[in-house]
Amino acid sequence: MASSTSENLKTPSVSVPQTSTSASTNFPPINIGTRRSALAQIQARQVEKQLKDAFPDRIYNIVTVLAQGDKDKVTPLQQLSMGENAKSLWTGELETMLEQGELDMIVHCLKDMPTQLPPSLSIGCICPREDPRDVLVVSPKLSSTSRNLASLPEGSTIGTSSIRRAAQLRRIYPTLKFADIRGNVGTRLGKLDAEDSPFAAIILAAAGLLRLGMEERIAQYLSKYNGGMLHAVGQGALAIEVRANDAVVKEMLAKVGSERTARACSAERALLRALEGGCSVPIGVETEWRGGKRVATGVEPAREYGLDGKAIEEDDGEEGLDNQELLLRTIVVSVDGKESVETEMMRKIKSVAEAEAMGRDVAKILIEKGADQILEKISREKQWAAKKELETASK
Ligand SMILES: NCc1[nH]cc(CCC(=O)O)c1CC(=O)O
């Protein structure tokens, strides 16, 4: 779909689609950067559409970049994301282009964004959240009999590279086994469905499957009260990264963002930041808005359920937001699932800053309850594994 320009010869991993010539405008085009996967491109087009609806006179280009993390399919994820630059392998190249003005915004899954951004960049807006939950996707060989975790055959292997997912499931389903599975959503589904697949099922984010139009693959939605699984910080929300000093683009994005999602996700991210967790740290969260006219998840527009399975009665949109309370549930689990610390807090939240304060307060409570010991142990083990890796490499 994207046609290459001669510019790309210098940077072959970047593809710029032809600019549409239909809109007449005096403004320069808005270049929207994203990763190259099918899901990333759908997400970028969704944001482009919202911007087009709000600002039809502007021209938009979607620029896709093959991220370092997508190129290296061999090194285990946990090693790829080690150290200072954790996760920059997903965003580093795009961020350089944004800083240099080749892009005007980057559409990210908020979940994949580091909690600290380079000082020249900031989050321009957070879009309304898709369903934030993790889901179980079952192998076609089992899908007529096993539609949930509890009914999978004993000793089944679940494909996931996420310590958060594996650790939480080990805690509740000690007979399940876990194995790494890498790649984009489509690649993972292909590995699950292969004739010689070692996996009985895999765990994915609902949001990705829903955006890809693959809802029919979802066997079970997981949450605290269904499978005992809390999702990742920021899961299901798209965030748009911009140059911190780009007032024009920031003003445009104000039309696209959701205050409800921004508050919920800011609480989650402040919690993660305070615990200094990288993407592989097993912290699970759930946020719900309670009270006011509706009982709702961080999901928006309101779906027909809350994360606890209670029906959502009425959607009073953003208006009732200040009268509602934000419920934040969290869990920190050891890798083997044997130790865990959980806490829940509910508070009225009237701004992103208040949401961040709540996230930090929850982090303090988790630390008082012993979460720091779990996290320190994981960090020691990671350093040990990295040292071993270096020793092996230098032999
Ligand atoms: N780790 C990759 C990733 N980053 C964001 C999503 C899902 C979409 C979202 O959270 O918005 C996924 C796929 C998955 O975890 O199944």
From TrEMBL:
Residues 1-29 are annotated as: Disordered. One of its GO terms (biological process) is protoporphyrinogen IX biosynthetic process. The keyword Glycoprotein does not apply. Pathway: Porphyrin-containing compound metabolism; protoporphyrin-IX biosynthesis; coproporphyrinogen-III from 5-aminolevulinate: step 2/4. Residues 30-250 form the Porphobilinogen deaminase N-terminal domain. The keyword Transferase applies. InterPro entries: HemC, Porphobilin_deaminase_cofac_BS, Porphobilin_deaminase_N, Porphobilinogen_deaminase_C, Porphobilinogen_deaminase_C_sf. Pfam families: Porphobil_deam (PF01379), Porphobil_deamC (PF03900). Its cofactor is dipyrromethane. Transmembrane segments: none annotated. Residues 11-25 have a biased composition (Low complexity). Keywords: Heme biosynthesis, Porphyrin biosynthesis, Transferase. GO terms for molecular function: hydroxymethylbilane synthase activity. GO terms for cellular component: cytoplasm. It catalyses: 4 porphobilinogen + H2O = hydroxymethylbilane + 4 NH4(+). Its EC number is 2.5.1.61. Tetrapolymerization of the monopyrrole PBG into the hydroxymethylbilane pre-uroporphyrinogen in several discrete steps. Belongs to the HMBS family. This is Porphobilinogen deaminase. It comes from Lepidopterella palustris CBS 459.81.
